[in-house]
Design a protein that fits this description.
globular; about 500 residues; 3-stranded antiparallel sheet
Length: about 500
């Protein structure tokens, strides 16, 4: 789809695994025709995608009657569904939508299809869940950085939603709420793993939630705006791009969609996929459960030796690396819920190692972004509220608590807690190095000495994207090392 609503698997992959797998369950994807299903699936008479026949009736009709003719026979209608109407949907009304509830979304529950905002929230929560699920395999440090950006609204949701809303309001993007419902329903049942590789699999319904209207050569800010077959190239935070054909092998890229079909975006370049044992230059070129070390080599499996640099497991599938201080160990499933855990004995995927009341650490199951919680089980950037839900940690101006005593509470993710509310630190005050936008602590920025200083002005030296005064339209030219106004082509 786009940078805004891309495939969950590919987004999680680019941040953590290099390509997480998603298995499509039988009969979970809704469809109107075979075109709505993945290539190895077909749309059957119940408007759902199945591999092969998938209907379990012993014939190729997919209708459950065993005669192979594709209808249920002897029903007196032309729909072939036995309901007595001509809709062909089995619901007894002539609408052909299959649900009979009057809302037009085809799910039979009588609710309205989601709005653009509800769709974005639903997808963002799924992105968050996918990243958090891989926490014990990808390393807590990596997950905290990627997770905060995905799990907290101030990370990716707010700016992405603002861009997309503007494009929809202007008619540059058409939003289809019915397809949005189908997309969310299908993704909710996916089993996302942490296998790695470049074989992520998308969902057809999600590909048509957004339709671009900007023709080739037209100006754009996001991929969603471009008509099918084009992508937004040359766009930056400061300048618009243009809708052009995807680039070829060896050309610069930011994401997979910038590249021609069949290529992957690795280390900033469009690269050809590599087979097992073939020469490679980036992990994403290699098949699932392979990594790039000059050539595509298989990741270690159960019982084989492994390493975990910075806590990131090199093991295949959903295995973690257990061993002495994670220097050299062996691949296994990791600790189960309530098991004792440490850096040398990590929990399995979908679990988190937390300090217990007696000083020891145990594995607990992770809560979902929009689900109930019991304490320290929420995704990064969220806390378990008194209502028992994982709520976003407060930002500038919101109510907060400054000390939690190891228990979940609303500690600021932006600024610090002052007089019961999050506030930004003034210039000259001490700050925690590494706190950057949008989760910064300073009104300006935190310098290398751990001091809040004012944003730099035009021509001043800079070394990070958040050091220049955005209010003046400036950005940090990292190649030149100073703050400047954008020069758009």
């Amino acid at each position: 789809m786009s940078r805004t609503l891309g495939c969950v698997g590919s987004l999680v992959a680019s941040l953590l695994c290099g390509g997480c797998e998603a298995e499509i369950p039988e009969g979970k994807l809704l469809c109107d025709s075979d075109a709505d299903c993945p290539s190895e699936f077909a749309c059957r008479s119940d408007s759902r995608c199945y591999s092969g026949d998938g209907a379990g009736d012993g014939d190729s009709g997919g209708d459950g009657d065993g005669d192979g003719d594709g209808d249920s026979g002897g029903d007196g209608d032309t729909g072939g569904d036995g309901d007595g109407d001509t809709g062909g949907d089995g619901d007894g009304d002539p609408g052909g939508d299959g649900d009979g509830d009057g809302d037009g979304d085809g799910d039979g529950d009588g609710d309205a299809p989601p709005t653009l905002a509800e769709t974005m929230v639903g997808l963002t929560n799924l992105f968050c869940d996918g990243v958090t699920y891989c926490e014990s395999k990808a390393g807590a440090a990596v997950t905290q950085v990627a997770g905060r950006a995905l799990c907290h609204p101030a990370g990716t949701f707010d700016p992405s939603f603002a861009e997309l809303t503007s494009a929809v309001d202007a008619g540059r993007v058409i939003f289809d709420p019915l397809q949005a419902r189908r997309c969310l329903d299908a993704l909710a049942d996916f089993d996302f793993g942490c296998a790695g590789g470049a074989d992520g699999q998308g969902v057809p319904a999600c590909d048509t939630v957004l339709t671009g209207t900007v023709v080739r050569g037209g100006g754009c800010d996001i991929n969603d705006e471009c008509v099918d077959g084009s992508v937004c190239l040359g766009d930056t935070d400061q300048c618009s791009g243009s809708c052009d054909p995807p680039v070829t092998e060896g050309d610069d890229c930011i994401e997979e969609e910038d590249c021609q079909l069949g290529l992957v975006c690795g280390d900033g370049l469009c690269l050809a996929r590599a087979a097992a044992g073939a020469v490679c230059s980036a992990h994403r070129q290699c098949p699932t459960d392979y990594f790039c070390d000059v050539t595509c080599k298989p990741k270690p499996v159960q019982g084989e030796a492994c390493t975990a640099p910075l806590g990131v497991s090199t093991c295949a599938t959903d295995l973690v690396c257990s061993g002495i201080d994670m220097v050299l160990g062996a691949c296994d499933r990791g600790g189960m819920p309530s098991a004792t855990c440490s850096s040398a004995a990590p929990c399995g995927v979908g679990l988190r190692c937390v300090m217990g009341g007696s000083g020891g650490s145990t594995c607990i199951a992770l809560a979902r972004a929009d689900g109930p919680c019991q304490g320290l089980d929420c995704p990064p950037g969220r806390f378990c509220s008194q209502a028992g839900t994982c709520d976003p940690r407060p930002v500038d101006g919101e109510a907060c608590e400054s000390f939690c005593g190891g228990e979940p509470c609303p500690m600021c993710i932006q600024g610090i807690c002052m007089n019961g509310a999050c506030g930004m630190l003034a210039d000259g005050l001490n700050c925690l190095r590494g706190s950057v936008s949008p989760f910064a602590a300073c009104e300006g920025y935190c310098d290398d000495a751990g001091m809040c200083v004012a944003k730099e002005v035009q021509g001043d030296p800079c070394a990070a994207v958040d050091q220049c005064d955005e209010a003046q339209g400036l950005y940090c030219d990292l190649a030149m090392g100073f703050c400047r106004l954008p020069v758009c082509q």
